[in-house]
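Dear support,

I submitted the protein below through the web form. The confirmation email said the job was done, but the results page showed an empty box. After a refresh the structure appeared. I'm attaching both so you can tell me whether what I see now is the final result or a partial one.
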Amino acid sequence: MMLAEQLQMETRNLCLAEKALLGSFLKENHLLHDTIILPEHFAEGRHRLLMQLMKKIHSLSRAVDAITLALDCDPEHYGGLSYVQELLSYANPVRFEDYEEIVLEQWRNGRNETF
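What the results page shows now:
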């Protein structure tokens, strides 16, 4: 596999892992308390924003869902309410730790340039 193809595959995998991680947080809010993931660990800008919003809402002991996110920030800043629903389709809380590790590994390796 050529380097460009490998980088493209890693970027796609990282994007999928970020979506699955965020979707898992939406599905199981308690995971926000358990994670060591910070907004800066995400490569995609809207994912960093969503993580920041989720952490903020969760710290106020409020449920984190599409509505509370929309009440806290204009949904157009992170792709709209339909994007939040899309994230839920990637959720798999059972695999949460796997997704978390993928995101952290890419961040540690400096491969999470914004896409």
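Response: this is the final, complete result; the empty box was a page-load delay. The radius of gyration is 14 Å.
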